[in-house]
Amino acid sequence: MRSVGIVSVFVLYLSSLTFAQSSDAPKYDSQKMDSQQPQMSHASNTDVPSPAAQTFAQIKNLAGVWQGPVTADPPQKDIKNGALVQVSLRVTSRGNTLVHEMKDPSVPDDPTRYDHPVTMFYLDSDRLLLTHYCDAGNRPRMVARNSPDGKTVEFDFLDLAGSTQFGNMYHAVFTSVDANHHVEDWTYMIPGGKQIHARMDLTRTQ
Question: At a CB cut-off of 8 Å and minimum separation 6, what does 90 contact?
Fold first, then answer.
């Protein structure tokens, strides 16, 4: 089996997905507007974030650079349990997108030659979605379950674009331990319906 279809589960992410926002909002003339509109209390003018928005805000707290060991279940010949993986997350697109990138810190930083998958998190109406741009050449989407405990966010498979010749990412769980420690569990579906589970125990480096 071509190793890229499996290695991409554990070691890596990059691509771009932008959500443009207009900055051409009308200017507010306080004297004119205040004379035309009734005063509103602060309470009535406050929007309560949806559960999906609250979960998105929670996962955006993981922005930074992380590193830690990865383990695979079942063990894989081309994945050494305990090998280090580096994960970076950054908020972009005026706060509308979180970019997640994975790489193997032991190889040169060259995404054109080495695995470097990218995952994009974004709100779609009342859902929090992720799109995973896999080194296997496909783009699965997953939808988040709203986090009831404020610690764990679980993503279930929604649909997929591209070939599944080498398998595809199928499930993901992000668990916040504290501000400097989180765990990522990724499930990869290989041809034939078998699953590979990878766990990354990550510590913040930046």
Answer: 63, 98, 99
Residue 177, pLDDT above cutoff 80:
yes
Which single residue is written with the structure tokens 């589970």? 197
Say which residue the tokens 């383990």 belong to.
71
State the DSSP string of 39-66.
---TTTTPPPPPHHHHHHHHHHTT-EEE
The pLDDT tens digits for 37-46 are 444 334 344 6
80-86: long-range contacts (C-beta < 8 A, 24 or more apart)?
Answer: 83/11, 85/10, 85/11, 85/12, 85/200, 85/202
Q: Are 197 and 185 in contact (CB under 8 A)?
A: yes
The half-sphere exposure of 49 on its side-chain side, counting CA atoms within 13 A, is: 12
The helices-and-strands tally (H runs, E runs) of the chain is 3, 10
Eight-state DSSP code of residue 133: E
Is the whole model's pTM more than 0.90, yes or no? Answer: no
In DSSP terms, 84 is beta-bridged to 69
Overall CATH class of domain 4-16+46-204: mainly beta
Quick one: CA torsion of 1, 115, 140, 183, rounded to 10 degrees? 110
Closest Cα partner for 138 from 113, 109, 117?
Answer: 117
Residue spans of the domains in the chain: they are 4-16+46-204
